[in-house]
Amino acid sequence: MQAVRVHAPGGPEVLRLEDQEVPRPGDGQALVRIASAGLNYLDVQYRTGRATAPLPFTIGVEAAGVVTDVGAGVTEVAPGDRVAWAMALGACAEYAVVPAARLVGVPDGLSLRTAAAALLQGLTAHYLTHSTFALAADHVALVHAAAGGTGQLIVQVARRLGARVIATVGSDAKVDAARAAGAGDVLVTGRQDIEADVRRLTDGRGVDVVYDSVGRDTFETSLNCLRRRGLLALFGFSSGPVPPFDPAILGVKGSLFLTRPGLNQHIVTRDELLWRAGDLFTWLAEGSVSVRVGRTCGLAEARDAHEALEARRTTGKVLFEVEATVV
Question: Quick one: CA torsion of 70, 71, 75, 80, rounded to 10 degrees?
Answer without folding.
Answer: 0
